[in-house]
Amino acid sequence: MRVENPIEVLGAIENDTDLLQIEVRRNLCMLEQDLPPVDVMFLYQIIDWVGDVADRAQRVGNRLEQLLAR
User: Fold this and answer.
1) How far apart are CA 53 and CA 69, in angstroms?
2) 2-59: per-residue pLDDT in tens?
3) What is the model's pLDDT at position 49?
4) What is the tally of structural domains in the chain?
5) CB distance 10 to 61 below 8 Å
6) Using CA atoms, how far apart are residues 11 and 5, in angstroms rounded to an integer?
7) How far is Cα 1 from Cα 11, in angstroms, rounded to an integer?
8) Can you give the residue range of the structural domain that contains 62?
9) pLDDT value, residue 2
10) Rounded distance, CA 48 to CA 29, Å?
11) CA nearest 9: which of 57, 56, 67?
């Protein structure tokens, strides 16, 4: 089916995003003392938002696949 491959790719991208999120958090943790606390808080929030977007995109892809399977 034409939809299966893009949905699999979407899942792989989401997994990569999870790994990158861990790496970015680790790097930000090392830089925290050199940044204003409010900036650090916002950066962590942005990291969370990007992760949420990736998770939601994967859920949408899964739902689309289920919808098309019917």
Assistant:
1) 24
2) 767 888 888 899 999 999 999 999 999 999 999 999 999 999 999 999 999 999 999 9
3) 96
4) 1
5) yes
6) 10
7) 16
8) 4-69
9) 73
10) 14
11) 57
Note whether 58 and 11 are within 8 A (CB).
yes
- pTM of structure: 0.80
Give the pLDDT score at 1.
Answer: 60
Q: Where are the alpha helices (DSSP H) in the chain?
A: 4-31, 37-69
Yes or no: say if 40 and 28 are a contact pair by the CB < 8 Å rule.
Answer: yes
What's the rounded Cα separation, in Å, for the pair 55 and 53? Answer: 5
Contact assessment for residue 58 and residue 10, using Cβ atoms and an 8 Å cutoff: yes
The token pair at 59 is: 């859920």
Q: Rounded CA gap, 24 and 43, in Å?
A: 10
Give the alpha-carbon dihedral of 52, 65, 8, 6, to 10 degrees: -100
